[in-house]
């Protein structure tokens, strides 16, 4: 069955100054009526070059308790590499539709890897204004290069180089989050699957939208991952829920955005918060983002760490295989 991509919908809608009804959010979800317009609190920005490692770890833990999201600067990923990653991603989405469809995802075959459109609707049947490219980048044994674009020619090289910088950064985040719980540095990573964890790169492409007041790039959700590390572009759009308000995340040059996902919340027994977030769209400009999802192995059982459970602090979450958690989350079933 042929799928109409949002990029194509956007091209048709641009001439009409309107969008199809399935993209129009309900009144209580529309960004025009729900975005907080008061003074915006600053999302924590953490300098990883700070030689006081204890201070850095404390800042990461505090931000994860209070916000579930923070930005990191001086993260060691070269600015030149970031620009190359952004260029090959943007270049892919500028290809003719026939070239992109060669890499189309096939959900009916049980795979979400490849080029696609946000297939799942929200609980009210509304669609998100986004297309994507999605594939595993690590471990090497799980990578399927058939869904990696061959055009641009440097796509594979750039993504593999970026992944090499992500591995130690993720290790650092896990270690600091573990010490923030009073645990050994390797505790959370080991509980999440250690070196068998899976890293998935997604490029979200949000085309210009003639009615950004009515649509959302992605509807509100938390990530089912352990951590998500996002490379944004300069077009604003990410919003987080804080104190029952939707607030814009300010763009910080050369920063990476770190989300706490559901599995970290579960393992920490609710000490760290999986951040509720969504994305808005822009009338004039396309927006792209590069989230990297770090997930446990499918068969790995995830639950609150025993060290964090006591008579005074009972377990708040069930212990469950990640594949079962994933199934419930995707199909919007209770956990």
TrEMBL record:
<dbReference type="InterPro" id="IPR026992">
    <property type="entry name" value="DIOX_N"/>
</dbReference>
<dbReference type="Pfam" id="PF14226">
    <property type="entry name" value="DIOX_N"/>
</dbReference>
<keyword id="KW-0560">Oxidoreductase</keyword>
<dbReference type="InterPro" id="IPR005123">
    <property type="entry name" value="Oxoglu/Fe-dep_dioxygenase_dom"/>
</dbReference>
<feature type="domain" description="Fe2OG dioxygenase">
    <location>
        <begin position="197"/>
        <end position="296"/>
    </location>
</feature>
<dbReference type="GO" id="GO:0046872">
    <property type="term" value="F:metal ion binding"/>
</dbReference>
<dbReference type="GO" id="GO:0009813">
    <property type="term" value="P:flavonoid biosynthetic process"/>
</dbReference>
<keyword id="KW-0479">Metal-binding</keyword>
<keyword id="KW-0408">Iron</keyword>
<dbReference type="GO" id="GO:0050589">
    <property type="term" value="F:leucocyanidin oxygenase activity"/>
</dbReference>
<dbReference type="GO" id="GO:0046148">
    <property type="term" value="P:pigment biosynthetic process"/>
</dbReference>
<dbReference type="Pfam" id="PF03171">
    <property type="entry name" value="2OG-FeII_Oxy"/>
</dbReference>
<protein>
    <recommendedName>
        <fullName>anthocyanidin synthase</fullName>
        <ecNumber>1.14.20.4</ecNumber>
    </recommendedName>
</protein>
<dbReference type="InterPro" id="IPR027443">
    <property type="entry name" value="IPNS-like_sf"/>
</dbReference>
<dbReference type="InterPro" id="IPR050295">
    <property type="entry name" value="Plant_2OG-oxidoreductases"/>
</dbReference>
<keyword id="KW-0284">Flavonoid biosynthesis</keyword>
<comment type="similarity">
    <text>Belongs to the iron/ascorbate-dependent oxidoreductase family.</text>
</comment>
<keyword id="KW-0223">Dioxygenase</keyword>
<keyword id="KW-0847">Vitamin C</keyword>
<dbReference type="GO" id="GO:0031418">
    <property type="term" value="F:L-ascorbic acid binding"/>
</dbReference>
<dbReference type="InterPro" id="IPR044861">
    <property type="entry name" value="IPNS-like_FE2OG_OXY"/>
</dbReference>
<comment type="pathway">
    <text>Pigment biosynthesis; anthocyanin biosynthesis.</text>
</comment>
């Amino acid at each position: 069955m042929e799928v109409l991509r949002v990029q194509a919908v956007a091209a048709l809608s641009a001439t009409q100054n309107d969008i199809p009804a399935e993209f129009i959010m309900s009144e209580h979800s529309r960004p025009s009526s729900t975005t907080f317009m008061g003074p915006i609190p600053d999302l924590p920005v953490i300098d990883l070059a700070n030689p006081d490692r204890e201070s850095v770890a404390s800042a990461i833990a505090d931000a994860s308790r209070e916000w579930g999201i923070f930005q990191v600067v001086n993260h060691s990923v070269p600015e030149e590499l970031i620009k190359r990653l952004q260029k090959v991603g943007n270049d892919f989405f500028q290809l003719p539709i026939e070239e992109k469809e060669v890499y189309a995802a096939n959900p009916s075959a049980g795979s979400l890897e490849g080029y696609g459109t946000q297939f799942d609707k929200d609980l009210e049947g509304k669609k998100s204004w986004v297309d994507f490219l999605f594939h595993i980048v690590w471990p090497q044994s799980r990578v399927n290069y058939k869904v990696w674009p061959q055009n641009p020619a440097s796509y594979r090289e750039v993504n593999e180089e970026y992944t090499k910088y992500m591995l130690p950064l993720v290790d650092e985040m896990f270690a600091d989050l573990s010490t923030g719980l009073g645990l050994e540095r390797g505790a959370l990573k080991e509980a999440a699957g250690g070196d068998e964890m899976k890293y998935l790169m997604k490029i979200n492409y949000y085309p210009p939208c003639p009615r950004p007041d009515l649509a959302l790039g992605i509807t509100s959700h938390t990530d089912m991952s352990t951590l998500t590390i996002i490379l944004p572009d300069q077009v604003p759009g990410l919003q987080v829920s804080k104190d029952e308000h939707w607030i814009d995340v300010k763009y910080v040059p050369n920063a990476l955005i770190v989300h706490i996902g559901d599995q970290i919340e579960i393992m920490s027994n609710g000490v760290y918060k999986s951040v509720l977030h969504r994305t808005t769209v822009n009338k004039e400009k396309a927006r792209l983002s590069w989230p990297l999802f770090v997930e446990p192995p499918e068969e790995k059982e995830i639950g609150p760490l025993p060290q964090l459970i006591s008579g005074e602090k009972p377990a708040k979450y069930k212990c469950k295989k990640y594949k079962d958690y994933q199934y419930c989350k995707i199909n919007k079933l209770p956990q």
